[in-house]
Amino acid sequence: MFLYDTTISNVRQGVLSYDDSEDLAAVPDKDPASRPGGAAGAGPGALGLSLSHISPDAVSESLSSGNRGSWEYEVDDVGAPELQIAVGGEYVRLKGSPVAVGPGGVRGSVTGFSSASRKRLMELLAKLDKSKVERPLFVTLTYPPVWEHWGAADWKKHLDTFCKRLEREYPGVALVWKLEFQARGAPHYHLMIFNVPFLPYQWVASAWFDVVGSGDSRHLAAGVEVRKARSWNGVKAYAAKYMSKEMPGAAVEGVGRYWGVRGRKYLPIEIIVVALEMPQFFRIRRILQRWMKKQGYTWRSLAHNRYTGLQVFIDWLAGLKLLSIFE
To answer: According to a count of CB atoms within 10 Å of the terminal CB, is the N or C end of the chain lower?
Structure first.
């Protein structure tokens, strides 16, 4: 876990371009070779820093995605304003102060892959520290031509058994899975596998063939696909195309969740949390709004309240640069 001093004295230069922002006009460039850190200290107006780690599911967030990034307003329920930054990732959350909202509801039974599910999946990927994990493998698991005799419980059992084999063969593996349906109605899985540099096609094909037990040689020969992500942009494109498609009205009885994570503890996710005073919150919010509007990002208002926060998919160094304006 990285610990940061209260003045963020060694923040590196961010990647955002603030063409007309007076707020960042005087921000000095930082040493690009160093990570933030240094002796603790606090001056007038210095930011308070929480030295705690936030797990991937510790905070309930809401965001939308786009080709160049994403942002939207959100209503926060508890706590003082703060800035959350995923180290090495592309996730920055400006958390607002409490506002008058009604009591939260209880999540109901899963009825499909909703927009909220899609947001949680994209958030998880955005939080990954790319300096600590290699680009993942993309794996697709399909069913044979005759598949109707298997039900939803069988599909989930097949996935669980395959994942257990994978975990035994490759300790430390982590993966994100997504269930979808082909045009013929048959289920298939998209997997994004981390911490495994190379996965033999024949091993995947044989393991999936044995788990399903179809006995169909065509299934053994063409039941899976394995390929390596060429870039992190490719990872985002794959997630947007194959793993984050909403499926309204596609719920199947007994399916339960349409996506999930295995080996979550092996995914490098670290969130730094910086407590803000209200003037600092408003200043950062204003900077992000101005920049994003100039970039043509779309936004969706969740509450007409000046105390609401927002989330963005931007490089974490850009989030750190926001903190440097208060030094």
So the answer is: N
> What does the domain layout of the chain look like in residue ranges?
22-108+268-324, 133-266
Choices 3.30.70.1910, 3.55.50.30, 1.10.101.10, 3.30.360.10: CATH for 133-266: 3.30.70.1910
Residue-by-residue pLDDT tens, the chain, 327 positions: 333 433 333 333 333 333 333 434 333 333 333 333 333 333 333 343 333 333 333 322 322 333 333 333 343 444 688 999 999 999 999 988 655 444 455 555 555 566 777 888 889 999 999 999 999 999 999 999 999 999 999 999 999 999 999 999 999 999 999 999 988 999 999 999 999 999 999 999 999 999 999 999 999 999 999 999 999 888 888 887 776 665 544 556 778 888 899 999 999 999 999 999 888 998 998 888 887 777 776 655 333 466 778 888 889 998 888 888 776
How far, in Å, CA of 18 to CA of 27, rounded?
A: 11
